[in-house]
Design goal:
mainly alpha, 11 helices, 74% helix
Length: 289
Amino acid sequence: MTPRWLGRLWDTSTGRFGVIVVVVIALTAVVAVFWTPFDPQASDIGDRWLPPSWPHLLGTDDTGRDILSLLMAGARTTVFVSIGAGVVATVVGIALAALGALTARWLRETVAVLVDILIAFPVLLIAMMISSVWGGSLWVVIWAVGIGFGVNIARVTRPELRRVQQSDFVLAARAAGLTPTQSLVRHLLPNVAPVFIVQLSWSMAVAVLAEAGLSYLGFGASVVEPSWGLLLADLQRYIGVHPLSVLWPGLTITITVLALNLLGDGLREATDPTLRHRAAEIHTPGVVA
């Protein structure tokens, strides 16, 4: 991949929206490590249910906590889970894809069957099963989403590795004495990177949604950790009386997941030459006889 794909990503409306929102969320998480307008866990009964106003720009909840501070602190949890799940998915996906594409036939077929079995289990179900044994935590979400989507990455990346492996330049490198591991690092992975990065961005979107959903159900973040899902679970009881307070965490989760999905679509358009050529044909006017 060359830096040109970044320009193509920015030229697409979906990619531009995804990049902007993801950067804003990441910067918010970094800022929240050092500063939030108020202590996210500090309660003040005298300020409960304040409407959006200064200095509580998004209002307060039923215990007087500042909702903006809670959302900023929750961004730290979201970014932590997304990056953690992405790292686990990367390791699992590359390992399974390499084993399923570059090893002996019996091992390739065994890995293919294993991937088909694992992919049948929904990520949330895996997380809930692990939580029932080990207890709910952010690490449960990270490992469940990472393993679950790592299997998806392996399923998509494996045929691409097989295709690149049969290319002339890879065969020439192997004939020149390059080991399978060196060939994987130097030639195979860089050539399947576009497909891999797109799948990874989608896995991070699933991680955000899974963390919020599992925390909402009580299987994710503990009550002492700031989380958008926990905040939504706390406030949804008052939706009939204070609907605006429920809007903020729900809207934040929706926009973040949407941005990561659109970023994945934008990356696919920016890195897939087939889609670019098809788009060029659509926008090129035909010759009138």
